[in-house]
């Protein structure tokens, strides 16, 4: 053996003893610690120490109505493989989370919101394998997948209901049964909420269609079943749940109580809105159920690496802040704030919109995160709601500009990034939506949700790139020849898609992600605000959502001299306000439906 063996080699180093090594380690770690401290201090001083934000606070949530997004098998109905084939679109768009409306096994009476198996994909949409591929492919693109969770009711074709009708235990009390229709409780879709079962010879409660019997949440076995459903999907790898119809989860056990009328104008006694739902909506017991689902989800939060894998839960609710904000405390991450769903109609002018935004920020419980929704599969499209200006412009770009620059998570409905419009020419005979059909030939248009559910407009080809079938399940909007992804992507001029994309990109800046929000000049036409995060660029957003031209001076009293246009709605030939041009802020003139995001110096 060479005398230089192991110990010989060691002796070659400059630090031969253990003591010396320990000392060396100590000095090196001290140095590293000092460097980290200095770096942190510098970051902090410059305000570059972003608050810890969860993924769902940083993304746009993009809602896909699966029947209408992309068909892959030529049956005229969208499906999971269709969605998979379009996943790159979200990277292009700058969206990091998709919410997919129900794709579970269903007789499709309410197009998937009537579920006959909560843990199975309907063959119309594909298979469980397809769902797993979708999740995997989405994650490979840094895209989160949020599924719809419909806990309030099942389909009347669900085995639980069929067995309940037969009084087969343990299913006998899985639903809410009575010998008579005991009261005036109403269905959201119109008419009595009590349906007759000819099998069981009893009435059952249904907050929605007769084909959607309400589950009995006072039965612990039902609670277990639905916890298992949440567990199943969390295990499958989804990132979050949008909880359907949360307010309807519980009803009073005292069925002798009739609900009083609201006396709202223009509401018929057939409508749900006719009654004040003291005994069938927003009961406090709902909190416990949400907490149970949340506890299940929390088991799947993965906090042992630095990627944020927390599971997200948002609950569907249309309500005033005092009611909806209560849902922040029961384990849900947030309740949808639907104020701008109504606030995007012309009846809500700029001052009214300002008020709605203020309400959200001012009533938000301590430490909670705001959010805004403008449209979904149950309401008119934002472009159709606000109409057009006298010069024929739509408000698509200003509304998207508003939604995407507010502080809080925006939820967008598919196609609204293109300015897709309602198809309001669907005849009663061609109407699919049971809500519309319930009100008959004369009134169906006031209720049908078909107009906002028409196929996604991908290109100008005869079926808009949505399907190979010549019979999509709902008619395409004829305007798909010029309102479509391909055209709006490649046009040489500014299009809604380009504006949306620019805004989605800008949203990733600290000023928009978590920066402060301060209103500036507002009147009945114009709304403006500044977003800023210390140490980073600040932006002035100024938009005209009104019907008259606005002239605004930001010099007096705000002392803004000039700024650079970073996003423009681009719907006017306005050389002065071209992208990247520096403009004086003492006199901004904005036409109706025109808006700018301006970088402040
Ligand atoms: C929710 C859904 C709606 C559905 C209803 C019943 O309100 O958004 O589309 O019809 O619940 O599930
Ligand atoms: Mg299909």
TrEMBL record:
<dbReference type="InterPro" id="IPR006047">
    <property type="entry name" value="GH13_cat_dom"/>
</dbReference>
<keyword id="KW-0325">Glycoprotein</keyword>
<keyword id="KW-1133">Transmembrane helix</keyword>
<dbReference type="InterPro" id="IPR045857">
    <property type="entry name" value="O16G_dom_2"/>
</dbReference>
<dbReference type="InterPro" id="IPR017853">
    <property type="entry name" value="GH"/>
</dbReference>
<dbReference type="Pfam" id="PF00128">
    <property type="entry name" value="Alpha-amylase"/>
</dbReference>
<keyword id="KW-0812">Transmembrane</keyword>
<feature type="transmembrane region" description="Helical">
    <location>
        <begin position="21"/>
        <end position="43"/>
    </location>
</feature>
<protein>
    <recommendedName>
        <fullName>Glycosyl hydrolase family 13 catalytic domain-containing protein</fullName>
    </recommendedName>
</protein>
<feature type="domain" description="Glycosyl hydrolase family 13 catalytic">
    <location>
        <begin position="63"/>
        <end position="453"/>
    </location>
</feature>
<dbReference type="InterPro" id="IPR013780">
    <property type="entry name" value="Glyco_hydro_b"/>
</dbReference>
<dbReference type="GO" id="GO:0005975">
    <property type="term" value="P:carbohydrate metabolic process"/>
</dbReference>
<keyword id="KW-0472">Membrane</keyword>
